[in-house]
Write a structure and sequence with these properties.
Chain A has two helices and twelve strands. With 178 residues, chain A is mostly beta strands. Chain A has one domain: Transcriptional Coactivator Pc4, Chain A (Transcriptional Co-activator pc4, Chain A), CATH 2.30.31. In chain A, strands 2, 3, 6, 7 and 8 form a five-stranded antiparallel β-sheet that branches. A four-stranded antiparallel β-sheet of chain A has the order 9-10-11-12. In chain A, a hairpin with a 5-residue loop joins strand 10 and strand 11. In chain A, helix 1 packs antiparallel against helix 2. Chain A is globular.
């Protein structure tokens, strides 16, 4: 009698995915990790994100999930994306090994650029890996309708990846100072 | 002592409906079907949609529910609709028998076209049934105010038909790797 | 040990109120009444609304709550309001005795008209009561900032007064057809 | 086995923070305090707000939290902020000692002014304390992307700081008039 409603499931698979000629793109929220403080409070331990996953087509309508590449959008990068006007573009740079001894050896960049006719955006993920000597580029054209889904779903997810859905009123009639 | 809050009800009837001269139109969300994986996770089994139902007027303010026609908007079609500017239009094509031996025999199309004065949209559902040899067209004019209700309610429903409301934080104090 | 979170409270008082020179205006949602069907489903019995209450000033910063007048915005009227551009106006007419023997004897109208400089709207409630032979007019100027609060809060409330927050997934592992 | 989901945590730390050259700015909701009425209802006792905190940089990437200054945005001030167009500005004045014998002795003002190139806003908090004879000014430039995060998160929080998330349907099958 396990229930979704009781929140005790381990992992949810509910991505929004678009499949195009050369690659596919899927998006799903990664919620923050919370931890309990000795004071009784709760703090955000690891920030949440919107995880974008790109994976290439290998033949018509077949895609190779093994070759997937991730790009985790921070809250501010999500803000940049949902704020894009029809002619705007944006670009983000990530170093997955930042702060480690491999810093600078893998560079990921995501660019979002408008179609010239305003009918959507190109999402391009470029991964330059100087350890494996690889340079991969995955490009997915996203229509205005698909972008509207992302904008709406990302706006829904944004306060949640920030942990703001955890602010809740104290139960009535309880006091903590006496 | 049954409660709505405990979520154990079977079915909710809470459509948004507009009744016009020649037909009525109602909209309500269909949530995704989830299933539990052996891994303990949960995945979206069947995607959700916004179900539009059209049914014809038979006399003044009387409508024939038996002659209803459905059109289930996918997440991307909802994105297209909530993204419509005052002068924009869109059109969607569905084959309810797709992938069966009857594929291509019933064709449904929904078009949403702006009133010439910008005061709303015409929602037109056309169902061509080559098995029953029928061709039905149901047209409902939707005012800007009614469209604003749909836009707001569909934006609320969109992350939910995608299953994104099921992403929830793990209970604190539990670990999965040890 | 009563809790807000357990949802068993009788009534919530959490209006958004603005106090101006000649009258005050407050707004709060009225949720729909739901009833259980023999089939096990749940339907919306009485639709929800956003209740607007106007009451007059009697002296500086003193208001007479006894003279309050209500106007319950339907979902579509809320749609009209949240859709208003800076130069748009709208007007709604209600007959509180509609369908009774007093139909037509009390007429309420609410008009929302932009300030000439685009800095907000006038909310004017006119109540003509032909039984009591009264004609009252209550006008509250609403700034753009206050209107933005209403737009955001009404957009939050709209799916809820429609009952759309009650659409929830079935618990996993239960089936209804076997 | 304490859980975030059961809502019994004392305090949540999930601010949205931006760190800039001369100061840092963080924002988080303060929910309203509710109290139970003898009638069984619940009312908002103390209104909620969005708490902004500014604190100065003392050296490169080091900030002095001890010198923090707060500014609590009311619902209407949040409405003003989320309504700002790219060229708009707004300014709010608070007296933290209002209604006490120290009224007028400390004056806080928050101004939000657009960058000349439309790429964001300057958030400037000025605190003039005539008791301590201090005059502090903390300025944080906020990019359009960061402002979009605030707009989306503040729009999420606004109905909640107003207490509107507490409006819930009565459990089915219960009546209060018999």
């Amino acid at each position: 009698q396990s229930s979704v409603a009781d929140g005790r499931v381990d992992k949810i698979f509910a991505s929004y995915s678009v499949y195009k000629g050369k690659a596919a793109l899927s998006a799903s929220p990664r919620l923050p990790t919370l931890s309990k403080l000795d004071s009784g409070g709760v703090k955000v331990d690891r920030k949440g994100s919107i995880m974008l996953t790109f994976w290439p087509a290998v033949s018509e309508r077949k895609y190779d999930w093994e070759k997937k590449q991730h790009f985790a959008l921070s809250a501010t990068e999500v803000g940049s994306m949902i704020n894009l006007g029809p002619q705007d573009s944006c670009e983000f740079f990530h170093d997955p090994a930042m702060l480690s001894s491999n810093a600078g050896k893998v560079r990921k960049s995501l660019s979002i650029k408008p179609h010239s006719d305003g009918s959507g955006y190109f999402f391009s993920l470029n991964v330059v890996n100087n350890i494996l000597k690889t340079n991969e580029r995955l490009v997915v054209p996203v229509t205005s309708a698909e972008f509207a889904v992302m904008r709406t779903a990302f706006s829904f997810a944004l306060p949640r990846i920030m942990g703001w859905d955890h602010y809740t009123n104290q139960p009535l009639g309880t006091t903590h100072n006496n």
